[in-house]
Amino acid sequence: MNSRILSSCVVVLALLISLNVKCSSGNDYNCVGCTLVIGLVLEYVEFNNLTMEQGLKTLCSYLPAEYGVTCKELVNIFEIPLLLILEQTSHPDLICRGLELCKGNSTKCTLYPKSRDVPAKGIIKGNQYRPGQVKIPKIPDDICDYPPFKEICRIIKQVEDHYPAQDFDKDHFSTIRTLRGSSWRGKDCNDFNKDIYPGRGDGKDIIVDTNCNGIVGSDPDTGESYEDMWCKGTQAMGTVILGDSVGAHFHLPEELVNPTLIGPLTYKYLPEMIENELDWPMESAATGYEESVWDPAKGEVISLYRQLRNKNRCNHRDYHNIAVNGAWSGTNSMGKIDKTLTRNATVDKPVFLILALLGNDVCNSHHTMNTMTTVTEFKTNMNAVLDYLDGYLPEKSVVVSVGLADGRVLYDNMHNRIHPAAAFSRDVNYRTFYNFLNCLEISPCFGWLNDNSTWRSMTHQRAMNLSQGLKEVVKAKNFKRIIGIYMDSPVAEMISDWEKQGGKGWELIEPVDGFHTSRMGQAQTAKILYQQMEKNYPEIIPPVNPHNEDIVNMFGTQNGH
């Protein structure tokens, strides 16, 4: 069973980390974790015509070595109690109650249909134990106190300040990909010199590539540096996003939870995924730069960074993704996130910064409007962020403040679709999944992921009020150093345009949590956002560098990303 308690942490922390929910989970989180885990394992063994013992052994063998041992230990602890309960029922909700992982109020919440309440005859064999002979193991309320989750929680805590975990020269850039490394910020080309990092703008770079864009050396005839010849005066600028899990591109590959797709290589990159907080900034709408080898998702990576880099190859590696799962406008969230942006106003290039908090000011698990951010609070919070950026960023930087998304598109496009965790039995759709999370009061967004249209409408209205408040803040500000503009969120337009092209709206939404934009959704967001800026604010779009061809001919891939 509990090969998946490890990947339950991925499934559950997928749903909960996406909101930056504290690892300390309590009974309701143990319940949803157990229910999803048991359901997935049962689906897997039935789809592959295996016994439970065979399925558990196989799933453990698929885990990376560092998790495989723990998986086997967990199976030894939970297998017999599980088999005893399976003799009575194969209903995941009832099994988790029998394992005492769903208790109290959580016993009122059910994910799977009543038809599952039958003995699991085909997947058990030779069980010699009887009820009463085996003690049900206890799991601590705090997930981080339970062995499988300790390492995951440690990794998450390691980067909770949103700086790279490995950074020898303390310039906030790294040579490793994960743990807030080069997946998030341009790769450092010298991690032992704090004066060498992506985005630096005052170097000649004749001998040393001080800004890591791969352009170094000088013309043999004139002695002029290539950096000066081909980059100076071209309006080179970095790309930055400050935002939430959508900006970070939270993404849990469907293959991890779809029983019909699980295979020997499914969990190969699980450690790297966890080290990146289940985010994929390298494929995001803001800072995407490559199709990751970790990710089987389909669709081209299109991003603001790629488009600005294509216009000017001097922008190579100059990106910051400082988006955080669960971020909202409050001073204990965005008021800390913006301070982790690293830019020297004196020596660094300007930036093109997207400020995008798309939902968490109206999204939480509470069944009330009272916990949503008010318009007054939102305006105060965002005014403070913009004041900070105006005083901190290099002159001529551009800050695009984006309004909240129209989250109604989530339920509208997903509620009748089958959830991938039930891809074999096809008996759980997203409406049921959303309601289960709401019942447990752990939903990422009670207001939008709700089968009550009144709640969805009220949440949308609050989101639109907050967006209007942000628009008023931006319009009223007298920016001294930066150019500040406001733009509506392109999410609704993105789906509308996609459907006009013959696509389906659900293709642009994450298939596991049903709450974020998929890779294709990220790409479409980038395209529309850029098109809108070109149309409505052409003055903020930098020109094409006439020396791009020279740079490519001389430096090729510019040392890659």
From TrEMBL:
<protein>
    <submittedName>
        <fullName>Acyloxyacyl hydrolase-like</fullName>
    </submittedName>
</protein>
<keyword id="KW-1015">Disulfide bond</keyword>
<dbReference type="InterPro" id="IPR036514">
    <property type="entry name" value="SGNH_hydro_sf"/>
</dbReference>
<dbReference type="InterPro" id="IPR048593">
    <property type="entry name" value="AOAH_Saposin_N"/>
</dbReference>
<dbReference type="GO" id="GO:0005509">
    <property type="term" value="F:calcium ion binding"/>
</dbReference>
<dbReference type="GO" id="GO:0009104">
    <property type="term" value="P:lipopolysaccharide catabolic process"/>
</dbReference>
<dbReference type="InterPro" id="IPR001087">
    <property type="entry name" value="GDSL"/>
</dbReference>
<dbReference type="Pfam" id="PF00657">
    <property type="entry name" value="Lipase_GDSL"/>
</dbReference>
<dbReference type="GO" id="GO:0050528">
    <property type="term" value="F:acyloxyacyl hydrolase activity"/>
</dbReference>
<feature type="signal peptide">
    <location>
        <begin position="1"/>
        <end position="26"/>
    </location>
</feature>
<dbReference type="InterPro" id="IPR011001">
    <property type="entry name" value="Saposin-like"/>
</dbReference>
<dbReference type="Pfam" id="PF20825">
    <property type="entry name" value="Saposin"/>
</dbReference>
<keyword id="KW-0378">Hydrolase</keyword>
<dbReference type="InterPro" id="IPR039676">
    <property type="entry name" value="AOAH"/>
</dbReference>
<feature type="domain" description="Saposin B-type">
    <location>
        <begin position="27"/>
        <end position="106"/>
    </location>
</feature>
<keyword id="KW-0732">Signal</keyword>
<dbReference type="InterPro" id="IPR008139">
    <property type="entry name" value="SaposinB_dom"/>
</dbReference>
